[in-house]
Amino acid sequence: MRIKRLIKIEEIPLNYAIDIALVKAIVAKYKGKKEGLIALLQEVQTVYTYLPKPALQFIEAELNYTLGELYAVATFYAQFKLSPSGKYSIKICKGTACHVQNVNAVMDEISAYLKVGDGETTPDGKYTLESVSCLGCCSLAPAMMIGEETFGKLNRETAINHIKNFEQ
Ligand code: FES
Predict the structure, then answer these.
(1) Residue 38 in contact with ligand 1 by CB distance below 6 A
(2) Domains and CATH numbers, the chain
């Protein structure tokens, strides 16, 4: 089976200023070790909330990995993010109960309203839109969370209204 790479390294955004000094102490702990790449990337993401390209370039320069290897791991595991998260996350449930209640239409409407796709952050940094497998409130399907608040029995219109009301 062939797995197509979804992203080219040169397409990874570099337009976020970061303090590279924050990654130096983390990288120092992994020098000379061949294992522990995932743990290393998790620590870097804990600091920055995502994996900034300059941080990965620093890891490439300091450790025995190529940038391609680092991005292969970072794009394989869903836990890693390549751009900063927004102030609030909007989690859209794509679990079975929500799927049969037409959550895809709700997702499309929200995506069009915010002008971002799944996993992306609005240009103002306010929202990150992400699909999740189950929010644990299947009787409210289709459901979503904005920040820490849960909203259920959604349709296209109510979903947008909840976002508008949350913005105020
Ligand atoms: S399937 Fe959507 S909340 Fe469980």
Answers:
(1) no
(2) 9-76 (no CATH), 88-167 (3.40.30.10)
